[in-house]
């Protein structure tokens, strides 16, 4: 007999795990979540929330500085860090209270599968709780990947945790990785007073985006004074007194007070008992569109899975997963594409906002990824500064929009917006992509004057409407 028997046990109470439990519980199932660290996961304390709390003030100051007649004054770094603490104080009692208030059992400890529909939780004091559950959901998130750099384990390198919880901005920072974390943290730290060097082994920053987006962010970071080293890897790193000394592939050395490793993330599936159910530990769990991994009982969502490593996509998978578990518990058939039981947007319309200056807000395909997927596409671009709303938003507005049009169906399969304050513009594109709205109908979606959304009209005209 297990110590606890529930309909659903979720391993990992990050934003994604919490949402699965809530969705299933709200529809009448009993649910428990197992959490080894903080309820709320990486996103709340060490990732999305604190990083954006560091970025919003520097973004706002840059916008004000671009506007004649208003004066932002210098940044009060201590006040910025204090406000960050209000958002991301690593105390999870509020989130734990929310779970218990919602009627979801919280088991603090490390969860492992011990066989089909069976989980054991090892608590901090070494005691264990056995849980039997009709459904087991893996929502264990991810940890930073460690690139193969000699000496990296011995220099006290920062991960996203130290970077987002920092108490004092270091005089200098070398960042390994020019992906999303790398460019966001380069923006924040350079503008909060550190001298930043960014090392990226590819030829461009944020490689998954339209190439011009990476170039604009690079130009802006360089204008801020960030030293960007593209096309070179870090090969070795050592401490020399108070400094870290990084050796790059071209033989050059970079010295800085701290090193931040931002070289991607690895799904946390290595110590999860996956071998007890015939799965290989240490890899992202491959789930189908219904988020199912095995049979009708094992599911994977969020960063632990092969899906997009983004909070909003994980929470979308969580809603799908909760509804699938509920449907199966009621003996109902699962619906198809675009039902509540299929995470179809994972294949067609993943949105992401990168909070650099300029911001990059994109959804669906880039031109290159659409061609790689075998689509016949035409991409058109337009400078946002050339529409009245853009020129009013900022002098010399630096930014553009691109739409990728499937020429056979005449629908948009991807869009990218780059520039100041474009974050919220991407959702209109997400609706157009998911809705497969024909261009002939989009022509009647009239953007208000004078807003930056008028770029939609110019894009359609550029396409030939
Ligand atoms: C610096 C940074 C900034 C980011 N900014 C954004 C952003 O702006 N927008 C965005 O959409 N995404 C952002 N992301 C990505 C986002 O943080 C992740 O996609 C999101 O946290 C994934 O949620 P999750 O619940 O799957 O995993 P996590 O948040 O990692 O939570 C997993 C939880 O599972 C627990 N756990 C793991 N193993 C076990 C176990 N065996 N037993 C019990 N508990 C366990 C962990 O302690 C953790 O609390 C950012 C990431 C980083 C690193
Ligand atoms: N605003 C957001 O949505 C947001 C913000 C931060 C992070 N995230 C998510 O968190 C995840 C992790 O972000 P990330 O930036 O760590 O990963 P990433 O995969 O976006 O970027 C890692 C980068 O590091 C580079 N790299 C890897 N090894 C290297 C080496 N040895 N030397 C030099 N460069 C090297 C890669 O070329 C790559 O560009 C991503 O999935 C991202 O989407 C999202």
TrEMBL record:
Enzyme class (EC, first level): oxidoreductase
EC number from the UniProt entry: 1.-.-.-
Alphabetized GO MF terms: oxidoreductase activity
Keywords, ordered alphabetically: FAD, Flavoprotein, NAD, Oxidoreductase
Domain FAD/NAD(P)-binding residue range list: 7-317
Cofactor: FAD
Domain Pyridine nucleotide-disulphide oxidoreductase dimerisation: start-end pairs: 350-456
Record-stated family: Belongs to the class-I pyridine nucleotide-disulfide oxidoreductase family.
Protein name per its UniProtKB record: Dihydrolipoyl dehydrogenase family protein
